[in-house]
């Protein structure tokens, strides 16, 4: 029963979030602040993880090719497919659930326990819309950009690892990367990314918004936000893959 | 004027507010006093609509606030200023942005006009040259002053103060009390102050409502409270050694 109670409460919160902003100008300003907070500030960690992720995929693929009948361009092909279909959207989604999710839950949770949310409400402003809507919308817009950026860095990482270790030539790797490309794989990855962005921001905001108590509870809300977002990402990864690829 | 009529509020079958009927007059500092856990904070949260009441009604100048829909409540709330116990300043904004926030949300003024009003309000609470400081850089008393400036920037008709002196030294408390009192009279606001500070009771209590175990136990003002024989009030006001001596001095003078 408890899970249904939370789903109901979460749905009611989302109903409050997706209403007309009290002031459009302030909403757009908040949206750009969130592009910076949730997107631009995550670029560094995403680049580092992506390069190493791509490098590992390339080396592992090369290691598993035993037969001389299999062309070495397969290393580039496998790296591209793995990165686009799974590693960039899902692994980066999980990384962002930790980084962005904990930030959102602790920021909103602290505002709750220090009565800042009450102050917004007393002024006659819808706090759920004012605080949460720009975060959800910004993440849903900026995360696809981050994931495309991650794909580029991952393929670059794979190329560097493959060429520098000498397992594949640069020409073979690039040939593999360009082989049999289907644009739908990118669409599939971006759909997943947008759904994951919504899960990360809305679940984290929910936990922050209903925090009660003090600093200890803010920490707990932050942990719950990361754990539940991660589980939901994995669950929706399976659901979306079934729906879109089969 | 703000009126509460026969209001009830309970949590898990425990009546925290029981049949309270009280009115708060404009141009006066109306105090709600009582021991910790007596229900005064819940009463204030019910008055401003942060908690829904179970029964009764709350009226703002004869407008039934408790039966209003969300949009109507929103309009009334734009006439309310609130000073929270900890100030509730927005951590991500500096002093100027904090005070300007209600103006940015509810007016179409030019930036210059807004800044002029912000500086006026900051000067009114005796704060100058702090516009670009962050809340974390302010002392407790300064935070309260900034919060007062933010509460009055939109010229509200009603001002609520939740324990404005908590965490402040006696001298700063007096400054905050006199500031609230002056502003109340200057703008003819209906001010409701939730406190358990003896100095506030004696200093600014134009009307006083004493809450005990969730019930309205006594009403009066700063003159009559010192003369009442009500045992619960005497226990509340004169429980410390210092206030006990004050009471006996008063009795000797009589």
Structure commentary:
The complex is a heterodimer of chains A (about 250) and B (about 250). Chain A is mostly helical. Chain A has one domain (about 40-245). Chain A is built from nine helices and no strands. The two termini of chain A are about 35 Å apart. The model of chain A has no long low-confidence stretch (mean pLDDT about 95). Chain B is of the alpha/beta class and about 250 residues long. Chain B has a domain at about 1-80 and about 160-165 and about 190-254: 3-Layer(aba) Sandwich (Rossmann fold), CATH 3.40.50. Helix content of chain B is about 40%, strand content about 25%. Chain B contains nine helices and ten strands. Chain B has helices at about 40-50, 70-75, 95-105, 110-125, 140-150, 170-185, 200-205, 230-235, 240-254, and strands at about 1-10, 15-25, 30-35, 55-60, 65, 80-85, 160, 190-195, 205-210, 215-220. In chain B, α6 (about 170-185) runs parallel beside α7 (about 200-205). The two termini of chain B are about 35 Å apart. The mean pLDDT of chain B is about 90. The interface between A and B is medium-sized, with 16 and 23 residues.
- According to CATH, the fold-level topology of the domain at 1-79 and 158-167 and 189-254 in chain B is Rossmann fold
| Span between termini of chain A | 33 Å
Query: Treating each run of at least 4 consecutive H or I residues as one helix, how many helices of chain B?
Result: 9
Quick one: biggest sheet of chain B?
6 strands, mixed
Quick take:
Chain A has about 250 residues and is an all-alpha fold.
Annotation keywords:
heterodimer, A: 246 residues, mainly alpha, 85% helix, B: 254 residues, alpha/beta, Rossmann fold, six-stranded mixed β-sheet, four-stranded antiparallel β-sheet, 10 strands
């Amino acid at each position: 029963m408890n899970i249904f109670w939370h789903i109901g409460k979460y749905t009611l919160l989302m109903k409050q979030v997706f209403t007309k902003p009290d002031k459009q100008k302030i909403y757009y300003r908040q949206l750009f602040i969130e592009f910076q907070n949730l997107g631009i500030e995550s670029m560094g960690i995403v680049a580092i993880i992506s390069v190493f992720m791509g490098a590992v995929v390339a080396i592992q693929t090369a290691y598993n090719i035993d037969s001389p009948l299999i062309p070495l361009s397969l290393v580039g092909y496998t790296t591209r497919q793995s990165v686009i279909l799974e590693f960039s959207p899902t692994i980066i989604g999980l990384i962002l659930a930790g980084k962005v999710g904990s930030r959102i839950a602790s920021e909103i949770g602290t505002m709750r326990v220090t009565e800042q949310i009450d102050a917004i409400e007393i002024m006659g402003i819808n706090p759920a819309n004012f605080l949460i809507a720009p975060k959800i919308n910004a993440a849903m817009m900026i995360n696809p950009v981050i994931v495309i950026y991650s794909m580029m860095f991952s393929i670059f990482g794979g190329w560097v690892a493959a060429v520098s270790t000498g397992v594949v030539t640069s020409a073979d790797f690039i040939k593999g990367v360009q082989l049999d490309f289907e644009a739908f794989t990118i669409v599939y990855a971006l759909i997943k990314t947008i759904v994951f962005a919504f899960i990360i921001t809305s679940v984290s905001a929910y936990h922050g918004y209903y925090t009660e108590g003090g600093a200890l509870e803010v920490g707990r809300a932050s942990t719950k936000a990361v754990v539940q977002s991660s589980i939901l990402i994995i669950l929706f990864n399976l659901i979306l893959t079934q729906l879109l690829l089969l | 004027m703000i009126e509460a009529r026969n209001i009830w509020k309970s949590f898990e079958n425990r009546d925290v507010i029981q049949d309270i009927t009280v009115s708060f007059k404009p141009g006066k500092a109306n105090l709600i006093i009582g021991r910790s856990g007596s229900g005064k904070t819940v009463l204030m949260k019910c008055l401003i609509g942060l908690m829904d009441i179970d029964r009764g009604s709350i009226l703002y100048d004869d407008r039934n606030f408790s039966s209003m829909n969300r949009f109507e409540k929103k309009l009334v709330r734009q006439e309310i200023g609130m000073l929270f116990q900890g100030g509730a300043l927005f951590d991500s904004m500096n002093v100027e942005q904090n005070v300007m926030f209600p103006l940015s949300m509810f007016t179409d003024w030019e930036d210059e006009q807004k800044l002029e009003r912000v500086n006026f309000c900051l000067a009114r609470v005796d704060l100058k040259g702090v516009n670009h400081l962050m809340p974390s850089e302010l002392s407790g008393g300064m935070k309260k002053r900034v919060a007062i400036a933010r509460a009055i920037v939109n010229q509200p008709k009603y001002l609520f103060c939740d324990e404005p002196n908590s965490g402040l030294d006696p001298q700063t408390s007096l400054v905050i009390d006199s500031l609230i009192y002056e502003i109340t009279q200057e703008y003819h606001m209906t001010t409701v102050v939730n406190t358990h500070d003896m100095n506030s009771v004696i200093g600014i209590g134009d009307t006083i409502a004493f809450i005990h175990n969730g019930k309205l136990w006594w009403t009066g003002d700063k003159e009559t409270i010192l003369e009442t024989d009500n045992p619960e009030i005497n226990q509340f006001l004169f429980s410390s050694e210092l206030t006990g001596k004050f009471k006996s001095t008063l009795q000797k003078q009589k």
